[in-house]
Amino acid sequence: MKYTKSNKVVLIGDGAVGSSYAFALVSQAIVDELVIIDIDEERVTGDIKDLAHASALSAKRTNLKVGSYEDCANADIVVITAGANQQPHETRLDLVTKNAEIFKAIITQVIEHRFSGIFVVATNPVDIMTYVTKKISGFPKEKVIGSGTVLDSARFRHELGELCGIAPTNINAQIIGEHGDSELAVWSNVQIAGQPLHQFKENYTLSENELKQAFINTKEAAYHIIRAKGATCYGIAMALTEITNAILCNQDTVLTVSSYLDNEFGYEDVYAGVPTLLNRNGAVKIYEIALNSLEKKQFEDSINILKEYQQKLRNYFIA
Questions:
Q1: Which fold has domain 150-317?
Q2: Which residues are the active-site residues?
Q3: At what angle do helices 234-248 and 16-27 cross, to 10 degrees?
Q4: Distances (CA, A) of 108 to 5, 69, 309, 310, 317
Q5: Model confidence over 203-254: pLDDT tens digits?
Q6: CA 77 → CA 57, 117, 233, 243, 287, distances in Å?
């Protein structure tokens, strides 16, 4: 019998986001093997048993394990959701120092156990934590990816779909830049039902205020959810699942993940959410979409904020 290598994901962090992501992987039968690492091993043990029962009802059985860092050695992807949670009064960038400390310990242990696959980071502030992961690991840029603005773009399509009465799958709309308060909508590129936004707007009498509110709802969504239930988990879990599927299934899918800019859009040595081609090799190509003058300025402001926080964290990843 010919040996076929299995798709293996190691998840580090079994909180609200991690456990939701694990359930999505199992229910959609995306991976052959899922290993979960968390300091609360009792919780992981319970989740593994619960997920095993779910797997019995899925299209394909997933091998599940309470793991350790030794399991990273032959993993295809290590997904990191571990970190301090964002509190109702905090921005994502307020978490920088706390989560940089946590990441320094995590990444060091993953590398010590000979991991050579692809890092996918979801911990906030995700663009900064992805940058920290690259610098500590020394991995090439295509092998270190953040969840970026994949969820923000999905939220944006949802808001526009609700406004227009059209399924989000029929809307092309992207949020780029920081996954946070300085993110921007690329209005100049929006298409609804195959029509450029300006054309759709004229035909269906959408107002500027309605469109502005759709973006405000997108940007503030996480704050509302955190106030209501303490954390966001389902949306980001689905975003991570889409990223995982794009990589493991070699899909050549373009998603607005957090990618390392190396002179794309005129910036370098910074991670930000931008349209990126994903396949089995990781983040293989960034697509530099055209931005109008206002969008260029907004993107520049977002990049400068990210660079400022990166500078503050250099002591965490420079020996």
A1: L-2-Hydroxyisocaproate Dehydrogenase; Chain A, domain 2 (3.90.110)
A2: 179
A3: 50
A4: 26, 10, 21, 19, 10
A5: 888 899 999 999 999 999 999 999 999 889 999 999 999 999 999 999 999 9
A6: 25, 5, 20, 11, 23
